Description:
Strand order of the largest sheet: 2-4-12-15-14
Oligomer: single chain
Amino acid sequence: xxxxxxxxxxxxxxxxxxxxxxxxxxxxxxxxxxxxxxxxxxxxxxxxxxxxxxxxxxxxxxxxxxxxxxxxxxxxxxxxxxxxxxxxxxxxxxxxxxxxxxxxxxxxxxxxxxxxxxxxxxxxxxxxxxxxxxxxxxxxxxxxxxxxxxxxxxxxxxxxxxxxxxxxxxxxxxxxxxxxxxxxxxxxxxxxxxxxxxxxxxxxxxxxxxxxxxxxxxxxxxxxxxxxxxxxxxxx
Length: 236
């Protein structure tokens, strides 16, 4: 009987030892898993941390489309004075100062954001603020605050405007063109007398008086290398 009790007691001790060892292993594994979890960063956070910041863009005007050396058929903004009118071989000719304005791709402007750079009048302008309102994109507070105001028209591009909403022209250079037979000036510079028409013989007198012919009020149409039409508009 004593022998049986001794055997039972030994078995009980072994069972208790096995349970204790199992519990210890379980606790050790739990601690290990906890440490591993604490050391491994959250996957979403890791992806966010590792994702590179969006690269700032640099938006430039579209390439210049006017070539003064091949300006044979075009309508351009132009200016001239009385002194620019002359005669050669019995035919009147005019030295026109030609202007153009920067235009920007609509998609580029729609994606322009704070931190990007836009090239305006040949200079880099870092975008610190942007406001879209009434058809205008106002960058860095607009022209009055040293920024720029952009707008669009039916041509599908954006362009910069001055304080009077006129296009922000820059000078390209000068060309001399003969005045065509049948030339006509259509004049709307005086709102009290719209749709006036003049001949080439009137140009010198008109150029010597106000408002003159400037980039903001004059469009010159050149066909086959000759000046065929001048259109002068009203400017406030």
